[in-house]
Design a protein that fits this description.
438 residues, alpha/beta, nine-stranded mixed beta sheet, four-stranded parallel beta sheet, 15 helices, 17 strands, 39% helix, binds zinc ion
Length: 438
């Protein structure tokens, strides 16, 4: 009996993430109507499936599309706009004033398009976004065919987007409602940070998260001063305050978590929360080094994020995997900390689980949607290759990504983005650069 398939992909190496640590050779993946319908030995799939197209990728590793668990995509327009400053000064003197002057739906649509193009070409098929005008971000993501989890942002002070917490919620919830039939778009509650959100707003966020069954995406314990200020203002550390408000649970995507005591790590593990680790942003802003190796050992789920382009300055999960590995080895003094399969899992399934999307994406398994990334590993610069998983972390960069599919549809082929022209992206970037320096 042969079953029909739209596409059969036969890579040199298949790294499915589930089962953990597997690197399969002579295997193939069959895709039909956007879904992975079979994963198995190539000879077997050749017998059992009749595909319309066969793609042999004899020099490539095939991995799940990567999930960027924390970003502010539209800030691609602020790439390199304010470098080499500490977080609070960087925010209050450079980023917030620029945003107050320029951020509007057009800024978000154009910036997110630039970000999506960069991420897709680098093998990222889904991103968790925290920014304003989510309907404009959705438009950009859908233009390039990318999966997005958009933030229902809450922040206590007014911006060009909204006047007060109720206004932020009303606008973002309306956007969610208008996009409820888009299979590539989902939402997260996104209270900005403990120091910018009141107890009353956190209570509303929790109620809505439970009613709508959404994750809660928040910056937390990013800097030492954030914790010191909380001790003065609330008499407790931010995580303790959030625990008291009921925010700490399986829905929580705790972004950064740079300063975590052992009992806080244990609490995150017990509650089934996720840390969205952003090592490049933490290093660049000199925030510190998150205790990811101990958190992983304690059973905390870890995902990887780039953060926004203003603090990174690229949306590149290959960088994040490598930086996470190197940083963990340095801070623990243990060269075995964070192996390649740990990092590949954080960059894929960890993010999918954080977003509640693990039944749809995050690993290469029959029944999941076909979000896939092929990485070509045969350049002389990469040779020899004894262990393709280690190569993806320590050798290859995103320039080696050759093919990307989202929901079974090719979005990158032979390194080229199919939905948008490079010259159009450059024109958009130039337009906003002119405005920002005016
Ligand atoms: Zn951030």
């Amino acid at each position: 009996v042969t079953e029909r398939a739209d596409l059969l992909i036969a890579p040199r190496w298949l790294i499915p993430i589930e089962p953990a640590g597997a690197v399969l050779e002579d295997h193939a993946v069959a895709v039909r109507a956007g879904q992975i319908v079979a994963v198995g030995p190539r000879a077997e799939l050749n017998r059992s499936h009749e595909p319309r197209e066969v793609l042999v990728l004899g020099e490539h590793a095939l991995i799940p599309g990567m999930v960027n668990a924390h970003t502010h995509a539209a800030m691609a327009l602020l790439r390199g706009y304010a470098d080499d400053m500490p977080l609070m000064q960087w925010l209050s003197e450079r980023i917030w004033p620029a945003e107050a002057k320029h951020v509007c739906a057009d800024f978000v649509r154009d910036g997110t398009l630039l970000a999506c193009a960069e991420m897709l070409r680098g093998g990222v098929t889904c991103f968790n976004d925290m920014y304003f005008h989510p309907e404009a971000a959705a438009e950009a993501a859908l233009q390039v065919g990318m999966r997005a989890a958009l933030g229902i942002i809450v922040i206590e002070f007014p911006t060009g987007y909204a006047a007060d917490p109720d206004d932020y919620l009303a606008k973002s919830l309306a956007a969610r409602d208008s996009l409820r039939h888009e299979p590539l778009i989902s939402f997260c509650m996104a209270p900005h940070a403990p120091y910018t959100v009141s107890d009353r707003s956190f209570e509303r966020v929790l109620t809505l998260a439970e009613q709508l069954d959404l994750p809660i995406h928040i910056h937390i314990h990013e800097t030492r001063s954030e914790i010191e200020e909380s001790l003065v203002r609330y008499g407790c550390r931010p995580l303790q305050r959030l625990t008291g408000l009921g925010i700490v649970g399986p829905r929580l995507i705790a972004v950064h978590g740079v300063y975590l005591e052992p009992d806080e790590i244990a609490s995150l593990a017990t509650h089934g929360a996720t840390i969205a680790h952003c090592p490049t942003s933490n290093m660049k802003l000199a925030s510190g080094a998150a205790p990811i190796a101990p958190a992983l050992a304690a059973g905390v789920r870890i995902a990887l994020g780039t953060d926004g382009c203003a603090s990174n300055n690229r949306l590149d999960l290959f960088w994040e995997m490598r930086h996470a590995a190197l940083l963990a080895k340095v801070v623990t003094g243990d060269p075995t900390a964070l192996g390649p399969h740990d990092l590949l899992r954080m960059a894929t399934l960890g993010g999918a689980q954080a977003l509640g999307l693990e039944r749809r994406i995050g690993s290469i398994q029959a029944g999941k949607r076909a979000d896939l990334c092929a990485v070509r590993l045969v350049e002389a610069d990469y040779a020899p290759c004894y262990d393709p998983a280690a190569h993806l972390v320590h050798v290859a960069g995103r320039e080696a990504v050759s093919h990307v599919w989202v929901d079974g549809i090719a979005r990158v082929r032979e390194h080229a983005l199919l939905q948008v022209r490079n010259k159009d992206l450059l024109a958009v970037a130039q337009l906003w650069q002119n405005r920002l320096i005016a």
